[in-house]
Amino acid sequence: MKKLSSKDIIDILPPDFSKHTVKDISVLSNSVFGESHFSSMKKMFWGNFGVTLWMAKPNNHVVFYRSAREYDDYAKKCGEYFNKSLYGTKKIAQKLIRYTNWFEDFFKKNPLLHDLVKNSKKFFETYRNFFAVHQAVYWGGDYLHRLKKSNRKIKKIISILAATYQYNELVVPHAEKYFKKLHTNHLLYDEVNDRVKNNIKYKQKLRSLLFVGRKRYILIQKDAKAIEQKINNWTKQGLQNINIIKGLGVSRGKFKGIVKVITTDSGRLLKCDQRDILVMPMTRPHYNEFIKKVGAIVTDEGGLLCHASMLAREFNIPCIVGTKIATKVLHGGQLIEVDANKGIVKILEK
Predict the structure, then answer these.
(1) Where, by residue number, does the polypeptide cross the bilayer (predicted)?
(2) Where are the domains of the chain?
């Protein structure tokens, strides 16, 4: 396959290409989820994606970049599908529950690398399809919530999607734990069989993956960093003088406190307390014990069904999600006010 230079890649990126989220997932999951955008997500839920980028970072983190317009269109298609039929919504929910149960059963019954290799075709096909349904439930529910309609049918649909999403939330963390145990988390999914045949123990560290349609490119770090810098430069334009950040208030309340920004160093969560306002790309289930100690939560991504929303409502923590720019604008030590009733963050001290 022809190698793309960083200039070639920058030339093909959509004008609204931007950072979407930071996730703590492996190269192995990246290779499956990236491909799912152009296979399962397209086939099952009419996703129309041109380019996605999975930028590898230390400590098993990845920064995911995509077109905001393409994801907005995908969310609308999923939301409209669910809104058409309560029966159709329940069928998709049941499918996601079956996938969740299938994986939890697989992890228990197939503890060895030999087991994964033997069942690799079925496993990774199911993982791709799981991700597609998982994403459809999340983005479809988020789209319906943002419509701000209060009829009984939509409330029922959102309730079903929220409960289903919460049920499947630990599949990916459990998969990551499984991959790490088998020493396959640094591989692409199509390299797993070679892990046994050729005793592959080490691969190039921090492999970033670019998907252009169905074509996958493995980026060297020099090109990956050049692309990331270019995208960050696009994003920074117009953010210098912002004093108010808007998002979606998902857990009511107001709180004034000190910013603590956590991006990839989850160890800093240990030092969070009730005076802090946690600012993150998105929260994760295994951070729960630390997150529920903070005074308020603000995230870049997320909607009504995201982990931060559910956790904040459970512990009555004021929370605003989906700001898109919080981690870019806010800095550690700043004094801010979170008004989750209005979905507004005010910067009180620069």
Answers:
(1) none
(2) 6-231, 244-347
